[in-house]
Amino acid sequence: MAKPAARIAVIQAAFALGIAAVVLQSADLQVVHGARWAAEARTQRTAHDTLPARRGALYDRNGVPLAITQEFYHVGVAPNEVADPAGTLRLLSRQLGVPLAPLQRDFRTRRYLYFHGPFTATQLEPIRSLKGIHLTGAYQRAYPARDLAAAVVGRLDPGTGTGSSGIARALDSVLTGQPGEAVFLKDRSGRKYESPSRLVREPVAGGDVWLTIDAGLQEIAERGLDDALHALGAEGGDVVFLDPMSGEVLAIASRQHAEGGGGSAGPSFFTTPYQPGSTAKLFTAAALLVHHKVDSTSAVSGHDGLYRMPVRGGRFFVIEDSHKEPGMVTLAQAIEVSSNIAMAQFAQRLTPVEQFETLRGFGFGSPTGIEFPAESRGVLQMPDRWLPDYSRASVAMGYEFSVTPIQLAAAYGAIANDGVLVTPTLVRQIRDASGHLVYQHQPEPVRRAIPPDVAARLRAFLRGAVGKGGTGGQAQLANYELAGKTGTARRFVNGRYASGEYTASFAAIFPADHPQLVVIVKIDKPSIGSYYAASTAAPTTRAMLEQALAARQVAIDRSQLAAPLDSAPVKVADSAEPAPAPPPVVFPWPDAGRDPARADPLPVPDIRGVAVRQAVLTLHRRGFKVSLHGFGTVVRTDPAGGESAAPGTAISVWTD
Predict the structure, then answer these.
(1) What are the pLDDT digits (tens) for 354-386?
(2) In the chain, what's the furthest Cα-to-Cα distance?
(3) Residues in contact with 548: Cβ distance below 8 Å, sequence separation at least 6, in sequence order
(4) 286 closest CA partner among 188, 359, 189
(5) What is the pLDDT of residues 469-510, one digit of tens each?
(6) Both 273 and 182 in a single domain?
(7) Residue 383 DSSP label
(8) Based on the domain organization, do 480 and 496 belong to the same domain?
(9) Around 264, how many Cα atoms within 13 Å sit in the side-chain half-sphere?
(10) Which pTM does this prediction carry?
(11) Cβ atoms < 10 Å from Cβ of 493
(12) CATH at 639
């Protein structure tokens, strides 16, 4: 038997070894692997959550919301934390719209209750401060103006929440805020507990964008285009309203009908080029004037409506006008009556390079630079690829090159702006989450396309084109002078010109003096009545401008308009084109010659519940002017329906 001293020594040694093992293990845990185990402990006890940031809003130029982000909540309930179960359950049932009996059963049998909702802050206000109630915030995109300017505003990708089209995509980095991050404590069951003291970073909301679009004018453009396409049996069309001085796009609409009869409002005004036809004759006229190839006395033969232009090999290129012009035709007359024969002959005075450089100077063949994804540059071949016998004449008539509606609007804007081409824009200003201005649009001149005196002569040509004997007479307004040009072009489809299919377009500058608007109206493949622009796109333009003048809130500075014409409304002479079919519905302007003070009062029609376009038409036909407040369906008027007012009185119309 071992001596006591030996046994004690063994025990002490064992204790020493045990203590040494503990010390070594502690050192390993705390010194060697301490950081790793501490991180693992934090991971098990805490959770990191991303706090979403509010996406910036989109407004029209006057602050009308087009796309906004609304906050909503999901609700979680921890039964073990609830202090007053009976009262809390009654409030939950009432505020969340949940039946009380199942709620009580789940409260007794489940460890955590979750209600996805989504619920608004107003719904949750009575329960927000109760113990055991946990709210999770999220955001949802809303479009108060519904589909107004939808192609421009764009939409979000449902999977990623990022912009997938339109301005939502082009300015995604501006509109998207910076998400925050928060740390939560959690128990062994994984339930989270809010810990405000552990908040890491607050989210920063995205910037808010004010577009150049005018909601009232946009409503007029979209409804006017819809009505025209329906009346004309057309396949589609585009409308552009542009401020030629600033380059701001005030309204832009597109409609394209699919084979199955459905319709869409894609951005064809930026993405789908077309051959402009006679609206492009003005640019060949510009080249002739810039290079001094014509003067006021220069004239060519009208060939009585049929011209056999000689080409190589003893052959002829046959050019016809839909009207006969006997005798000699000046350049101004060629624009006025839209003579293909005269323009083809005048174009022979230019070299392909001179004609090409003028078109490029107006911006054709290159993107305008507007803030929109996938903008088309159009098609403009280099002059060395032009056919020597045909191309100069074809280009002068608006063929062999393609433009987008926004390119044509910008080019006509240069004519209105004394020859200076300005970059079009959709963005007027941007403000950060604090409301501070971070961007304000300023006009961006691209280049001087033509001298001011040439621009003035071209505007005079356009006045003639909508005057007596001009092809665009049906676009002329009764009280303010318009300048513009019609264009009717055979459609180029799948590499060839389609038989019997046409694109009708009209390019307008309003007013002719001190222009404020450039308007482009394009109608694809009209099938009811005449297909000529003189009886399709031209009266559609007039209808829209008359509605814009009647709507007092749209972006027209009436103080800068010239005094209304004292003479009677312009009488449209017989067009040189074939007799037109009945035009689309035109909103007649109230009789300018009537003296409201001497006229007998008339009853105001009751237009509540009527779409604003039809309401304006009804009031105008009764002889009243209109002051619009909003767009949509009429909810009230002042004076009210049934009351009396003098003819010419401005009836205030409020909509939903």
Answers:
(1) 999 999 999 999 999 999 988 999 999 999 999
(2) 146
(3) 217, 220, 554, 556
(4) 359
(5) 888 889 888 888 999 999 999 998 888 888 889 999 999 999
(6) no
(7) G
(8) yes
(9) 9
(10) 0.76
(11) 10
(12) 3.30.10.20
Pairing type for strands 208-211 and 644-645 reads unpaired
Q: Helices (DSSP H) in 485-633: which residue ranges? A: 537-550, 612-621
The angle formed by the CA atoms of residues 650, 653 and 654, to the nearest 5 degrees, is 150
Number of domains in the chain: 3
DSSP 3-state assignment of 139? Answer: strand
Residue that is written with structure tokens 């071209």 in the block: 458
Q: Quote the strand ranges of 127-216, DSSP E.
A: 133-142, 180-186, 192-193, 208-211
Note whether 211 and 428 are within 8 A (CB).
yes
The DSSP 8-state label assigned to residue 368 in this structure reads -
The encoded tokens of residue 544 equal: 């829209």
Three-state DSSP string of 252-315: EEEEEECCCCCEECCCHHHHCCECCHHHHHHHHHHHHHHCCCCCCCCEEECHHHEEEEECHHHC
Whether the per-residue pLDDT at 200 is higher than 90: the answer is: no
Domain containing 79 — which CATH number?
A: 3.90.1310.10
Residue-number span of the structural domain to which 655 is assigned: 590-656
State whether residue 592 is helix, strand or coil: coil
Task: Count CA atoms closer than 13 A to 348's CA, side-chain side.
Answer: 12
Question: In sequence order, what are the beta bridge partners of 523?
Answer: 237, 504
pLDDT digits (tens, 9 = 90+) for 50-82: 778 889 999 999 999 999 998 888 888 888 888
What is the domain-level CATH number for residue 412?
Answer: 3.40.710.10
